[in-house]
Amino acid sequence: MLSLASLKARWASLFGSFVALLLGVIMLTMTGLLLTSAKPQMPQRFSAAAIVVQSPDPLAPADSFLPRRPWSPSQVERLVAELSAISGVVAAIPDTPVYAQPLVDGKPTAATEGNSWPAAALAGHPLTAGVAPTRDDEVVMPGRVPGERVTILTAAGPHDYTVTGTAHGIYFFKPFAGVRAIGLLTHGKVDLARVERAVNGEGKVLTGADRAALESPADARTRWIGLQVLTAMAALTGFVAIFLVASTFSFSVLQRTRELGLLRVIGATPGRLRRMMFGEATLIGLLAGALGVALGALAAPLLGSLLVHAGFEPPSFTVRFTFWPMACAFLAGLMVALTGVVLASRRAASVAPLAALRAADAQRRPMTRSRWVFGLLAIAFSALLGLATATADALSIPTLAGGTVMALIAGIALLSPALVPPLARILLSPFASGPLGLLVRQSAFTAARRTSATAAPVMLAVAFTVLVTGMVQTGAEAYATRREAQIPGTAALIPDGTPGLTNAAVSAGATSVLPTTVWHGDIPLTALGLSAQRAPDRMVVRGSLAQQRGWTVGSVVPLTVASGHMVRLTVGEIADAAPADILVSRDSARSFDPDALTSVVYLHAEEVISPTPGAKMVSAAEYAALADAQEDRLVWMFTLVLVGMAGGFTIIAVANTLLMAAVARRRELTALSRLGATARQLIQLVCLETTFVVALGALLGIATALPGLLAIRAGLSQQIGHPVTLIVSWPALAAVVSACLVSALPASLLPSASASRARHRGGRQSR
């Protein structure tokens, strides 16, 4: 009852905690629903196949996104024959997707995949006009008229085809190699046990929802990126919500010192005060949790569509509503509220009865022993994480850097009351000679904890903005510089609206790279076909792979290639710094994988190439910047999402905290007004105080983020082998500081207007 009565009486001071928690539950609900929805989706080209037989799983890490080993042509022939003979199976059709991109007015269209005509039945794509293709130069495709001539980009280059019919997809007459799936068209019931016996361990039998395992490696990688985004959003949401709820409750206790002291005077025990604080947090958690879950469920489809548009999820992604993510978000909101109030409840229980008699707000001990101990421990932990960041690999750097800054935020937030006086002297030195500057400085001195609490949300916003944007831009610049130094030429031919360069785009004398995948057993290995490699039956092997497999120079290794055939290559050299598992000649790579596309062609100044459709020429510097442009775009979108989340949370918290502080000081402002301060002077005082708080938070935020960025720079320098320039996104920093100031000033000015009105009322009454 005491908690409910206190909540009713002080709802305005706890509104910020409610809003922070509400936003946190909304984000947790959305991310939870999206995470449970981010599951593999069956490709539509198998929608009519009730049963699909898939080649064996690759023996590789889940995040390698390498394709499965294809069956050999003889295996495909045997499987098709035995599966077709099973009762209830109408047809067993190999799936053979290939690169196919039609040209319209010389420009590539969005479609990038074709198949052999029999595979149209697996997708349920009947002819809508015309007839099926019967020759290698014929095609069935949508949006064209039978008899029309079209140009289609294939891995070999642009080829002219005659349209013989129309259907929902691009289908050729010629069957292709590299079969990894066989779809079964069925009629009636099929004995799955017979299908398993026919497969005989050479693959997996998929039915129903299990057919989602047919998802392409590209879609799986996109989904994995989305998973990282959603996980980071959930982690950031939890940290920011706990930090803001804890700081708001702590600030609330600071404002309620006299009230809590009065409760102690009338008999309330420390345990009763602690239970009251937990009761308030529970009520806020229940209210914010219920409303947040409802709003999060409504907003989840919108966030899902944004992730698809940004490239964080494949186009087939849809949000599925399940109960347990929403229940977990509700419980998480309640736990965040209770966690955030732990320190505040300890502070409330330590208030002495004599605090009710204090007439001044000066804090005799802004720094308690626990603040010193836990603050220094957090900074020490941050230093350890920073050292780990400086020596970490590329995948671990973002996680360790984030942990470094989070620990440093917690440490500086705890120690900030001790930092307020010296920083106040520095920041307010231009105003030291005037009465307003003196008032603001002395207020910061006598209420250091209040000042640090109001600056905490600004510190959080600035720290995350500087860290995340700086990390992304520093990393992008470092990798671009390394790429430019490694480019063996002065210019490059790169894809233009296509996933890669066709064989026709590659000059015979230029330096080019043709990526593919080969398999040693079921282990996928990355392979590069290089124009500099000449021997067709030899390969260069990465040192770590040779050591792992026991290969030495002269070893003859059997490998399965993308066409499904078996080849034997001799290890000609072992290179520790090889850019792929194995290096072969370009001609060998082309024979291994007829559908492979070249990623780039390096050119020298004397070489002149007329780009074919789907290719363009750029300088070496331009290529270095564009090489990972798509991935950099995704990372930058990810950055904006995280910064927007942290900024949105903290801007609301800034406004709420300063409003709470200003409301609590209304009596002071009224006293100043009645002592003769004009309305203009009150506004100037409040503006100066607010600007000082925002500047203090920004300074602490920059100081918090810089160690993390320096550790990132050290780690990147170690990785790429040359100095890295530290980049701070000053526009992003200016934007977030400006947003904090814009939200803080109106919240702080409202009570000054009230104080000014009180002065006028007092003046009229005295007359």
From TrEMBL:
Keyword Ribonucleoprotein assigned to the entry: answer is no
- Give UniProt keywords alphabetically: Cell membrane, Membrane, Transmembrane, Transmembrane helix
Localization: Cell membrane
Please tell me where this protein is predominantly located.
membrane
Question: What is this entry's stated membrane topology?
Answer: Multi-pass membrane protein
Report domain ABC3 transporter permease C-terminal positions: 233-351, 643-757
List where the protein spans the membrane: 12-35, 224-254, 281-303, 323-344, 372-391, 397-420, 451-472, 634-664, 685-710, 730-751
Q: Name one GO cellular component term.
A: plasma membrane
UniProt KW Secreted keyword: no
Q: Write one Pfam family the protein is assigned to.
A: FtsX
InterPro entries from the xrefs?
ABC3_permease_C, Membrane_comp_ABC_pdt
Q: By what name is this protein known?
A: ABC transporter permease
Q: Which organism is it from?
A: Rhizocola hellebori
